[in-house]
Amino acid sequence: MGGRICLSDDSHGIAQVGLNYGKMKSYLEGMDVKEIWHLVPAEERQDGDEVVGNRGRVVAGRMADWTGHGFWAKLQDRI
């Protein structure tokens, strides 16, 4: 479909931050999502990043190997 996925969190308190990220990872893997995107300040732009919006303050960076990122191991340690 050509869309992009950027993970977010709609927590309403500290105890809820990242509450369902483990479930989300399993779901996205099951849906065969190959890459996710993350937002970074424009001054940290790297090759391959894309400008978001008209003002150019933020760029989107692609993470092709998102399931192997250290974030998931740290998250699993906290669950």
Summarize the structure.
With 79 residues, the protein is an alpha+beta fold. Helices cover 24% and strands 19% of the residues.
Provide structural commentary.
The protein has 79 residues and is an alpha+beta fold. It has one domain (14-78). 24% of the residues lie in helices and 19% in strands. The chain has 2 helices and 3 strands. It has helices at residues 21-30, 70-78; strands at 36-41, 50-52, 58-63. A 3-stranded antiparallel sheet has the order 1-3-2, with no helix packed on it. It starts with 20 loop residues before the first helix and ends with a helix. The mean pLDDT is 85.
Question: What is this structure's SSE topology?
Answer:
Elements: H1 21-30, E1 36-41, E2 50-52, E3 58-63, H2 70-78
Antiparallel strand pairs: 1-3, 2-3
Number of helices, counting only DSSP H or I runs of 4 residues or more = 2
First-to-last CA distance: 33 Å
Largest sheet: 3 strands, antiparallel
Q: Quote the average pLDDT.
A: 85
Q: What class, by secondary structure content?
A: alpha+beta
Please indicate the percent range of residues in DSSP E strands (runs of 2 or more): 15-25%
What's the helix-strand series? HEEEH
Q: How many runs of DSSP E, i.e. beta strands?
A: 3
pLDDT < 50 stretches:
none
Quaternary state of this entry equals: single chain
Rg? 14 Å
Widest sheet: strand ordering: 1-3-2
